[in-house]
Amino acid sequence: MSLTTRRRAIYTGLAGHFGEDELLPLLSLWEAKYADKPPFALNEFLAEVAQRSGRKLERARLYRELVGALTGPTSNLLPDPAPRVHAWRQGEGLEAEEVSGPDALARQTFDALSQALFGLLDPEMVPRLRRFAAGNLNGMQVETELRLRLRGWLEQGGSLGLTALTLEHLRVLLNLLYIGLCEYLGPVTADQVLTRAVQKTERMNLQLPPQKLL
Predict the structure, then answer these.
(1) Is residue 107 over pLDDT 60?
(2) I need a surface site. Which of 15, 48, 139, 170 has the fewest CB within 10 A?
(3) What is the rounded distance in angstroms from the CA atom of residue 161 to the CA atom of residue 147?
(4) Are 69 and 111 contained in the same domain?
(5) Confidence band for 48, pLDDT divided at 50, 70 and 90
(6) pTM for this one?
């Protein structure tokens, strides 16, 4: 189950018990501390929810509703609250994304290179490669929130997950994708695919050459 679907399920389960002003910090707590934990950690999460809310909760009922949301059809879930959670964290709306500097240029080049790389693969290979990298993110020395956003990018695409990544982070992420290529295609074919993706990105004449990510 993707991070987005899990977040929607937690949001759906909590929404009937808390107002918006309470929900957003609780969802932020879940993302930061519990999103990467196994399902049985729900009880630990609910204990902290009860402590933070300062009121008596029907924990057994709330637990059942959360489990039901996590295991039921996604069509029953509320829309993803991620934008509102992120805005709450920033205090006064989303921060402006950095648009200049070496790290921003690296993110632009990585986005182009990764899209070129995925475009060279068989369609059924792309989600497997993304899942491989997502499953190996724990080795990256980044904040939990950023790791969760990265996982979201790997599972679903888009550009939000790349925000705030440095050049070194992107090198590690590209290396994870390369290791996955070697795992599925073998090192010779992996090298060939990566070389073609780099050459394709070079022709875009971006300010940061793709070789800087290797």
Answers:
(1) yes
(2) 139
(3) 8
(4) no
(5) confident
(6) 0.56
What percentage of the chain reaches a pLDDT higher than 70? 88
Q: Do residues 24 and 52 touch, judged by C-beta distance below 8 A?
A: no
* 212 vs 98, residue with greater confidence: 212
Amino acid sitting at position 6: R
Q: What is the mean pLDDT of the chain?
A: 83
Name which of 180, 128, 182, 11 is nearest 80 in CA terms: 11
Per the domain annotation, does 209 fall within a domain?
A: yes
Residues in the chain: 214
Q: Which residue range forms the structural domain that includes residue 70?
A: 3-90
Structure tokens at 172: 């590690």
What DSSP line would sit under 25-46, residue for residue?
HHHHHIIIIITTS-GGGHHHHH
Of 117, 188, 184, nearest in space to 154 by CA: 117
74 and 38, same structural domain? yes
